[in-house]
């Protein structure tokens, strides 16, 4: 089994320069291809145009992901950075040329041609049923579009301004050294692992090492975050969204009301997780839980798992749940789609990337041999399974909106956890670990978004790093209540939460996905599960779930917390 992914298949094993030139030539033909929309276009011409556009989009994705994933392997590879810059410039040209098409499809006049009329759209959209829902949604959201020249400036700004800012943050973190006790550690993944150490002193030293490293760079990190916040606020305002989070919601194809209900229920039910913190303190034989000890193990994990052992546990669990899950996961592994181990200048954490429907998704890991790594790999393989199950769709709607995108991954974590706990002699300890993970996915992520909403306003009012850090600490204290002692150094935790920088307001997707996964796991309705996953992003979150038999309302989210409360009660009785 290979331990590194095979990225060459992304560009069909060609030389990068050759593939780049091939795509560049096709982009130069866009103006000629789009002449068909300047006249009375027929149904067959429209379908041909869409097939051409989607095929070109696949080539663009391949070209963009090739250096993009190479950069994740080594964030300081100068040759890769050069390639990425070449691709960024070409993508800008592609976006500028295709803007005419997207404005036309949305029914907007772009100064050159009139937008597609609603009457004509009703006729043409039926020719490509897979895309018609998203097209009608785009037309509905056209009110948030800017003028063509303004959209051009936005694209340039994102690619040449905000993009490099996030790259800079990645480089700053890649250069960080973490002092943990007397040791100097250069990998954030290794430091995060120590946060789960069975030794209280090691956990505290790991956290302090993480925070001190970020505190040294806090001025730079705040400057980057401030720019990202101001950029997001300005764009949301210009696009006439009600508020900043609505811009994320509409991009996720989810209603504001649904997200508001999710966050309200998470806020109102923080006391349920506080019961959990009290239980954990009892297990750790302390009167009150210290935040340094939130992820203290409640079971002895003496074993360090080999990669092969971890994969076997995952595939066995998937097979027991459904043979289709096991089959897809095995194919992803055997097709060399995963980069497993930490290395110098490699990105921290883990992710799953879908390039095109024809390719299995690519997964990045930082495997260190813990049970947590097994669950992380299960999580990313869940994303991969979701991607493959939805690969019959066009690229534009293969991937689900973010809240549904986190459903399969949290479900596969549950599947593997239940496999592990069956064979464990310390079921109480493992249950407490799992509830801790659910807290991190539901409670913690929801409070991240609550913090962001306030941080945006604070920065808009002129707040600086100290105000943001103090706000973060204040929100932590609200979240944990009287059950957890919080060291003041936790005020710097916000500065290493990558989603704050890369994807504002992203994190409620984790909360939504976990609550939905708990519901699906308890129902054990395979038909419902596959109907949701196979839908990809072909409709709104609410409509996909409604067709499967799920209504997203206050009761839905409250019922999720009832399941969590049952878990806590079960763990208390063991």
Provide a quick synopsis of the model.
This protein is mainly α and 574 residues long.
Task: Give structural attributes.
three-stranded mixed β-sheet, two-stranded antiparallel ribbon, 3 domains, Butyryl-CoA Dehydrogenase, subunit A, domain 3, Neurolysin, domain 3, 574 residues, Collagenase (Catalytic Domain), 7 strands
Biggest sheet statistics = 3 strands, mixed
Radius of gyration: 24 Å
What's the shape? globular
The secondary structure category is: mainly alpha
| N-to-C span | 40 Å
Q: Could you explain the architecture of this structure?
A:
The chain has three domains: about 5-145, Butyryl-CoA Dehydrogenase, subunit A, domain 3 (Up-down Bundle), CATH 1.20.140; about 240-300 and about 430-574, Neurolysin, domain 3, CATH 1.10.1370.20; about 300-425, 3-Layer(aba) Sandwich (Collagenase (Catalytic Domain)). The chain is built from 27 helices and seven strands. The protein has helices at about 15-30, 30-35, 45-75, 80-105, 120-125, 130-140, 150-175, 190-195, 200-215, 220-240, 245-250, 255-270, 270-285, 305-320, 325-335, 370-390, 395-400, 400-405, 405-420, 425-440, 445-460, 465-480, 500, 510-525, 525-535, 540-550, 555-574, and strands spanning about 180, 185, 290, 340, 350-355, 360-365, 485. Helix 1 (about 15-30) runs parallel beside helix 4 (about 80-105), helix 14 (about 305-320) runs antiparallel to helix 15 and helix 24 (about 510-525) crosses helix 27. The chain is globular, with a radius of gyration of 24 Å. The relative contact order is 0.11.
Q: What's the arrangement of secondary structure elements?
A:
Blueprint: H1 16-28, H2 30-33, H3 43-73, H4 78-105, H5 118-124, H6 129-140, H7 148-174, E1 178-180, E2 183-185, H8 188-194, H9 200-216, H10 218-238, H11 244-252, H12 256-268, H13 270-283, E3 289-290, H14 307-321, H15 323-334, E4 338-339, E5 351-353, E6 362-364, H16 371-389, H17 395-398, H18 402-405, H19 407-422, H20 427-441, H21 443-460, H22 465-480, E7 484-485, H23 498-502, H24 508-523, H25 526-534, H26 541-548, H27 554-573
Parallel strand pairs: 3-7, 4-6
Antiparallel strand pairs: 1-2, 5-6
């Amino acid at each position: 089994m290979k331990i590194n992914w095979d990225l060459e298949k992304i560009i069909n094993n060609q030389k990068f320069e050759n593939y780049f030139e091939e795509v560049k030539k096709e982009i130069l033909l866009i103006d000629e291809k789009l002449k068909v929309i300047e006249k009375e276009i027929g149904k067959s011409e429209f379908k041909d145009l869409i097939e051409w556009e989607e095929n070109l989009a696949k080539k663009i994705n391949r070209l963009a992901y090739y250096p993009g994933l190479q950069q994740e392997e080594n964030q300081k590879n100068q040759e890769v950075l050069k390639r990425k810059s070449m691709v960024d410039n070409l993508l800008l040209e592609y976006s500028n040329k295709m803007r005419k098409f997207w404005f036309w499809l949305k029914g907007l006049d772009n100064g050159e041609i009139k937008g597609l009329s609603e009457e004509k759209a009703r006729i043409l959209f039926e020719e490509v049923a897979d895309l018609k829902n998203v097209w009608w949604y785009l037309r509905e959201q056209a009110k948030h579009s800017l003028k063509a020249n303004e959209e051009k400036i936005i694209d340039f700004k994102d690619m040449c301004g905000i993009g490099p800012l996030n790259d800079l943050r990645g480089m700053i973190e890649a250069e960080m050294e973490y002092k943990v006790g007397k040791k100097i550690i250069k990998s954030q993944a290794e430091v995060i692992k120590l946060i789960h150490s069975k030794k209280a002193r090691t956990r505290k030293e790991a956290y302090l090492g993480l925070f001190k490293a970020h505190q040294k760079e806090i001025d730079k990190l705040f400057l980057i975050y401030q720019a990202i916040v101001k950029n997001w606020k300005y764009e949301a305002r210009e696009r006439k969204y009600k508020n900043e989070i609505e811009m994320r919601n509409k991009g996720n194809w989810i209603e504001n009301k649904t997200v508001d209900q999710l966050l309200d229920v998470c806020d109102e039910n923080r006391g349920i997780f506080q019961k959990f913190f009290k239980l954990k303190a009892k297990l750790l034989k302390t009167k009150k839980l210290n935040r340094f000890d939130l992820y203290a193990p409640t079971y002895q994990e003496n074993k360090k798992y080999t990669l092969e052992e971890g994969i076997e546990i995952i595939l066995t669990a998937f097979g027991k749940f459904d043979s289709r899950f096991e089959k897809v996961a095995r194919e992803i592994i055997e097709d060399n789609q995963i980069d497993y181990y930490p290395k110098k200048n490699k990105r921290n954490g883990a992710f799953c990337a879908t390039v095109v429907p024809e390719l299995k998704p690519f997964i990045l890991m930082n495997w260190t041999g813990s049970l947590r790594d097994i669950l992380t790999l299960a999580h990313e393989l869940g994303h991969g399974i979701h991607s493959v199950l939805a690969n019959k769709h066009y690229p534009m709607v293969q991937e689900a909106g973010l809240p549904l995108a986190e459903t399969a991954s949290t479900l596969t974590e549950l599947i593997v956890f239940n496999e592990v706990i069956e064979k464990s002699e310390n079921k109480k300890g493992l249950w407490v670990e799992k509830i801790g993970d659910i807290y991190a996915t539901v409670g913690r992520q929801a409070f991240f978004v609550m913090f962001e909403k306030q941080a945006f306003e604070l920065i808009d009012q002129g707040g600086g790093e100290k105000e943001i850090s103090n706000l973060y600490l204040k929100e932590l204290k609200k979240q944990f209540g009287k059950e957890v002692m919080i060291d003041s150094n936790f005020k710097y935790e916000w500065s290493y939460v990558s989603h704050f920088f890369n994807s504002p307001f992203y994190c409620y997707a984790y909360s939504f996905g976990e609550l939905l996964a708990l519901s699906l796991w308890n129902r054990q309705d395979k038909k419902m599960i596959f109907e949701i996953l196979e839908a990809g992003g072909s409709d709104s979150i609410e409509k996909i779930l409604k067709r499967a038999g799920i209504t997203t309302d206050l009761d839905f989210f409250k019922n999720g917390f009832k399941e969590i409360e049952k878990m806590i009660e079960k763990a208390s009785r063991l």
